[in-house]
Amino acid sequence: AACDLVVLRFAPRRSHMLPIIAIAFSWTGDTWAEPQGLPAGHNGGVKERLTTPAGGRRPHILMILFDDYGWADAGWHRNYTAPGGEFLPATPEVATPHLDSLVREGIELDRHYVYKYCSPSRSALQSGRNPYHVNPLNAEPTISNPDDPVSGFQGIPRNMTGLATKLAAAGYRTAGFGKWDAGMATPDHTPHGRGYQTALNYFHHCNDYWSFTDGGCPVPYSGGDKVPIVDLWKAGGGAGEGRLGEGRLGEGPAWGANNTCVRDCGCGCSVEVGPPAECAAGPLGDPWWGGYEDSLFEKHALALVEGHDAAVPLFLFFAPHIVHTPLQVPQEYADRFAFIAPTDKPRHQRQVYHAMVSFADDIVGNLTAAFKRKGMWDDTLVVFSTDNGGPVYGNGTAGANNFPLRGGKMNNWEGGIRGNAFVSGGFLPPSRRGIKWDGLAALWDWYATFSALAGVDATDHRAAKASLPPIDSHDLSAFLLGKTLASPRAELPIGTEPRLSNLSSAPLCASYNRATPYYDEPSVVGDEPKPLPDSPPPGSRCTTVSALIVDEGKGGLWKLLTGTVEQAMYTGPAYPNSTTDEVSSHFVSHCGDGCLFELRADPLETSDLASRHPQRLARLRAKLEAYEATAFNPDRGGNTAAACEHAQGVYRGFWGPFMR
């Protein structure tokens, strides 16, 4: 009965769905193929080299990427012995039964690393590169540098090949729903431009869950007033105009799919339970849960799965807005966690955060149920990750908790970059189910892994022609298929936005464009990524590679941190709460030449061993110097008027590409 309720609750209506694209595909031998189901000339017309699928057959792939998901906010990180040895009991506050079930049936990835915040992680996943080789910045998508038509933008340089393009060349049906945050400036930067045949997404770091707005554009002759802009974009092919997924160019603003309200709050909206009275579903939207944004993405993802031909391999990328601020959730879910209120902060951040996690967990349950109804589950690989650690800054105003790990989002402590992650699905061999793996892995390793499983060479040939950095992705398919327990990755350089550094290979601070805007959340006191120093000392250097993890096997798992590292703090099992009153910017470690931790013995990063291991410190610093010497730091430019001109003109109040 419970399963029937889940299915009926989200039974999709078939009108106004993004269209299904049929793909016929076959190959023999060493073949080069164009991506299927995409416009002629996609990805510069570059073909991809096909290979034999690593597992003998091409699996369906469901990639799920949560946003700002805290370590202690995952059910499988409760009722367990936590890093450091403390037993953390179960709690009704953390309710993720669907995710927990997938972990039990799959592989818990205990050492899966991500970048410390959103856009670089997402750029890394889609491009197969460590963020310092593609995009280490949370810059705004409205920037551009007209002097650099390849890399002068936010997100992924236009001549890098997207993950979905690789899979489309291997005959996959590709679809993406939810948060993008990997570029917007040109048609090459959108999900469709990166290979997603069908997509419904927003471009910015976050937006209002009810009105879908973020940011604004000037009102002419108003003296500085701005009008909010809706952030919702679709792709799906077909002729005609006006219906969702049927724009003439195959993509465009998702007119009518947004709710009818337009309000000026975006990422900065306050904690809110239930939809505002003025927000009603648009003519192509849906009233599920009051028009809640993630339910709209869910609706289209479910419809796509239900209409899919199971004989064609499917790559579905689902990236909900949850659990990023603003903390907003339907009333029913908030009510389920009302018992938290007596110990919560006055604005109920912990309660609403856990309610949002529960909502997203139900989405995952509905998606996996859809795969099973279609008879696709036995051939499906599910990969789940967060894009960064949970935000614990601002006295807990973002609601997350990484207990017992140190730090959180926006820093390189384990709480900021050691992410919740697992692999599951019927494609996994029985020998790989129900295990925990501590091999070193990174979010961008899925680029090479999915390519190997799909039967396509992961080499980025288009990027090579443009002299862009090659991929950094390691193929994990041998481990997934039960051929080895070892990880192919032994080292992991860790990036940062430009920071003062004494690394001799780092560029001069003066070489960075100070006009490039960084994401700045006003509620974050002292923890947000800083622009370059106001007055860097003459000759000072700024690095975008500030840390390193090296797995020496029996010799230890070593982590080097350099420079200043904020949020050198710990939370408790129930964070934030009514007694939370710290200013996390007060907790700063000044690592200088390096703080050194052995993570297997000291996963909480409590003991700096730099003074006891000077030779190892020197060896790791030399490695870091070498990695920094390859860092990719193009001038991405500053805000451009063209973004608002397009938003207020051709897109009629929606964000979208503003350059060709």
Which helices and strands appear, and what pairs or packs with what?
Elements: H1 2-9, E1 32-33, E2 48-49, E3 60-66, E4 80-81, E5 87-88, H2 97-104, E6 107-109, E7 112-113, H3 118-127, E8 143-144, H4 163-169, E9 173-179, E10 198-202, E11 213-218, E12 226-230, E13 233-235, E14 251-253, E15 272-273, H5 293-306, E16 314-319, E17 328-329, H6 331-336, H7 349-373, E18 380-386, H8 393-396, H9 414-417, E19 421-424, E20 435-437, E21 441-442, H10 445-454, H11 461-465, H12 477-480, E22 491-501, E23 541-551, E24 557-561, E25 564-565, E26 589-590, E27 595-598, H13 614-628, E28 638-639, H14 641-648
Parallel strand pairs: 3-16, 3-18, 6-20, 7-21, 9-10, 9-16, 15-17
Antiparallel strand pairs: 1-2, 4-5, 6-19, 8-28, 10-13, 11-12, 13-14, 18-19, 22-23, 23-24, 24-27, 25-26
Helix pairs in contact: 5-7
What does this structure look like?
The strands form nine sheets. This protein has a ten-stranded mixed beta sheet with strand order 14-13-10-9-16-3-18-19-6-20, sandwiched between helices. A four-stranded antiparallel beta sheet has the order 22-23-24-27, covered by helices on one side. The protein has a two-stranded antiparallel sheet with strand order 1-2. Residues 1-22, 237-249 and 522-527 have low confidence and may be disordered. The radius of gyration is 23 Å and the shape is globular. α5 (293-306) runs parallel beside α7. By secondary structure, the chain is of the alpha/beta class. A hairpin with a 5-residue loop joins β4 and β5. The termini are far apart.
